[in-house]
């Protein structure tokens, strides 16, 4: 009943992946760390610090995981406990993550750029039993932990007897050791290790979902194993010879799944950038002879625009593939890049935190040249295109909300049954909040977003969060936040503000008010004042009207 060309089945209005299904372990009592460590490969160096050149070979890496797991067990970390990791990208990020996961405990990550207020909400929600962080972020974590006393392990060398550390250790948090010390410990096979199954929770990563309110996404060991099998299928040929640049943040589903887990399972080498910087990234490609480079569309555009200058300055001849996610690339973007770098293949992908990084992808240059597509459905993934008004599943070339079902779909939202019930149905279908269609050849195209998220350099920004903050200002009567298009960053938040009677508050004052409370990528960068915010009869902001208004002023 399934059309081999499109993958569509008329009997149940479901699209089936045209890619070969992925295998699953026969053993249900299996944790993610054991699965990754037991995979056969011939890789030598696992991680390289792009700045210092420090390395972790595969044997050193797994020895470190065993040692840290032993220490965590002795600290009383058990199955189900949550451990917070607040850190920029680091070669030690995977050591912490997989050590925690090996015990059946749950790793939760947060953006190092987040403010203390944002981190405090995360801590209040997840109630971690332990936190790992770098010395530079100690003051921020201390400010965020006032109501939740935390035990903290430092990642990296600390400055001894610094004021911030003394304050940190005597107020809301206690520094109990360092990762360096833990990695030197002799591993013990006698450590307490609870029985872990594929269905147990491995990670809690935060996503704004379809509502714009940040929620913890609970993903299982099975979810990540399924994604790793997908990545192995996609990149596995001679993977141990490949060198990837970790340009995306490891706290994000893409960075955590790919660079902390996936490429480790394949035996590839990952060169880690602590933060994104275009020149440092290009220098790292040249120095380490990188073959794969993950990017988001705004960075790709920047490279195309400066291609002639870049090629004169950096030797990028080792590059074979660019991986791009966050938004589908246009014909102009793809051909502009290929014109400048004709030997480099562009591959694209579509995924959500709620789908543990699975969804759709283009795996060849030929597939990417179906311009505007996000690719074919990932292996073992099913899709439906659903009319938002009638709830009816639609056939080929009809536009509706994309639903996904498959082995990478999350368990649900952490401690939020209402949000889970509205997003994840009992039969396994995930509502993505994206308006899409699938064409006659099975390629997915994203038309628009039903969810109201702003994509700034690949980061998700929820308008609702910024609007709530704006309404706390004593001179603001009402406010709405919309995405404003920008070639360099993709989109940035723009605010429409209604002043209270008698107020003369300026746009600069509004921008400064928000900037003090949120991470840099969430900052409002444009303000317009308006008599009233357009809303429908039920009070919902009519963002499309404001987006059209902003476009008319360009």
From TrEMBL:
Q: Tell me which Gene Ontology terms the entry assigns under biological process.
A: phenylpropanoid metabolic process
Which Gene Ontology cellular-component terms appear in the entry?
peroxisome
What Pfam families does the database record attribute to this sequence? AMP-binding, AMP-binding_C
Known pathway = Phytoalexin biosynthesis; 3,4',5-trihydroxystilbene biosynthesis; 3,4',5-trihydroxystilbene from trans-4-coumarate: step 1/2
Taxonomically, the superkingdom here is Eukaryota
Question: Does Ligase appear among the keywords?
Answer: yes
The residues covered by the AMP-dependent synthetase/ligase domain are 41-414
Keyword Transmembrane in annotation: no
Q: Which InterPro entries match?
A: AMP-bd_C, AMP-bd_C_sf, AMP-binding_CS, AMP-dep_synth/lig_dom, ANL_N_sf
Q: Which UniProt keywords apply?
A: ATP-binding, Ligase, Nucleotide-binding, Phenylpropanoid metabolism
Domain AMP-binding enzyme C-terminal: start-end pairs: 465-540
Q: Which family does the similarity line name?
A: Belongs to the ATP-dependent AMP-binding enzyme family.
The protein's matches in PANTHER family, at most eight in alphabetical order, are given as:
LONG-CHAIN-FATTY-ACID--COA LIGASE, PEROXISOMAL OPC-8:0-COA LIGASE 1
What name does this protein carry?
Uncharacterized protein
């Amino acid at each position: 009943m399934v059309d081999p060309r499109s993958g569509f089945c008329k009997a149940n209005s479901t699209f089936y992946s045209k890619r070969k299904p992925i295998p699953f372990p026969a053993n249900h009592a299996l944790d993610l760390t054991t699965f990754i460590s037991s995979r056969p490969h011939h890789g030598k160096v696992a991680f390289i610090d792009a700045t210092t050149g420090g390395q972790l070979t595969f044997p050193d890496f797994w020895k470190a995981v065993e040692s840290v797991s032993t220490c965590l067990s002795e600290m009383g970390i058990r199955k189900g406990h949550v451990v917070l990791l607040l850190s920029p990208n680091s070669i030690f990020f995977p050591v912490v993550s997989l050590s925690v996961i090996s015990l059946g405990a749950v790793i939760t990550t947060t953006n190092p750029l987040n403010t203390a207020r944002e981190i405090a909400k995360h801590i209040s929600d997840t109630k971690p039993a332990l936190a790992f962080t770098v010395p530079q972020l100690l003051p921020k974590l201390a400010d965020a932990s006032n109501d939740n006393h935390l035990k903290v392990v430092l990642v990296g060398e600390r400055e001894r007897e610094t004021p911030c550390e003394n304050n940190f250790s005597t107020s809301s948090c206690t520094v109990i050791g360092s990762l360096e010390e833990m990695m030197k410990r002799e591993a013990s096979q006698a450590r307490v290790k609870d029985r872990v199954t594929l269905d147990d929770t491995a990670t809690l990563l935060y996503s704004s979902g379809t509502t714009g309110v940040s929620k913890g996404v609970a993903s299982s060991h099975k979810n990540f194993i399924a994604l790793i099998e997908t990545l192995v299928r996609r990149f596995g040929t001679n993977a141990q010879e490949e060198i990837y640049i970790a340009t995306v943040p490891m706290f994000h589903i893409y960075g955590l799944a790919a660079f902390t887990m996936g490429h480790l399972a394949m035996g590839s080498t990952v060169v880690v950038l602590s933060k994104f910087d275009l020149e440092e990234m290009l220098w790292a490609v040249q120095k380490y002879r990188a073959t794969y480079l993950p990017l988001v569309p705004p960075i790709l555009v920047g490279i195309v625009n400066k291609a002639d200058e870049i090629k004169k300055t950096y030797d990028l001849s080792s590059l074979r593939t660019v991986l791009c996610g966050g938004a589908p690339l246009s014909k102009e973007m793809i051909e502009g890049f290929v014109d400048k770098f004709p030997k480099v293949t562009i591959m694209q992908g579509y995924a959500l935190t709620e789908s543990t990084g699975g969804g759709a992808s283009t795996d060849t240059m030929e597939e990417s040249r179906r311009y505007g597509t996000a690719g074919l459905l990932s292996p073992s993934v099913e899709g439906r295109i659903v009319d938002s008004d009638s709830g009816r599943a639609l056939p080929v070339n009809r536009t509706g909300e994309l639903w996904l079902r498959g082995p990478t779909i999350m368990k649900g939202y952490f401690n939020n049954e209402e949000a889970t019930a509205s997003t994840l149905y009992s039969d396994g279908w995930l509502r993505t909040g994206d308006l899409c269609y699938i064409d006659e050849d099975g390629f997915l195209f994203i038309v628009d977003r039903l969810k109201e998220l702003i994509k700034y350099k690949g980061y998700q920004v929820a308008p609702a969060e910024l609007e709530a903050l704006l309404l706390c200002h004593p001179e603001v009567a009402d406010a709405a936040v919309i995405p404003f298009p920008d070639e360099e960053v993709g989109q940035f938040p723009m605010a429409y503000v209604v002043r209270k009677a008698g107020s003369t508050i300026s746009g600069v004052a509004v921008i400064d008010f928000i900037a003090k409370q949120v991470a840099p990528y969430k900052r409002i960068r444009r303000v317009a004042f308006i008599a009233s915010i357009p809303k429908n009869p039920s009070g919902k902001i009519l963002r499309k009207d404001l987006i059209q208004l902003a476009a008319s002023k360009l």
